[in-house]
Write a structure and sequence with these properties.
Blueprint (H helix, E strand, L loop, with lengths): L11 E2 L3 E3 L1 H13 L2 H7 L4 H15 L4 E4 L7 E4 L1 H29 L5
Antiparallel strand pairs: 1-2, 3-4
Helix pairs in contact: 1-2, 2-3
Length: 115
């Protein structure tokens, strides 16, 4: 039997949710591959779906997430803008702190239910 635990998924919203684990993963994979298309493929997303995710987040945030280089002989590519990299770090730090707090609260309230 699996141990009882708490699982949080942090999502950010304005009117609607615009940022969460999926967009974070897409950005991290784009940074890794230096390509939104390659990142989308690695996540089994269509390029159009990935583009809509990025575009929607950019609209909500009010700044560009990716610097895009149009293809040529060596193909195009995408890198995170400095604002995006800073936002990703803030989100990850926020998430990590919330998980720590959540773990402590979980222990406080549910420790007797954990084997």
């Amino acid at each position: 039997m699996n141990d009882l635990h708490c699982s949080l998924k942090i999502r950010l919203a304005r009117d609607d949710v615009f940022f969460g684990p999926g967009v974070l993963m897409l950005l991290k994979m784009t940074e890794h591959y230096e390509s939104l298309n390659a990142a989308a493929k690695s996540m089994n997303l269509s390029y159009s779906k990935a583009y809509k995710m990025i575009s929607g987040t950019e609209d909500a945030m009010g700044f560009k997430l990716l610097d895009r280089k149009i293809g040529g002989a060596h193909g195009g590519g995408s890198t995170l803008t400095p604002e995006c990299a800073e936002f990703v770090r803030a989100y990850e730090n926020f998430s990590n702190e919330l998980e720590e707090i959540s773990d402590n609260l979980f222990q406080k309230y549910f420790s007797k239910y954990i084997e």
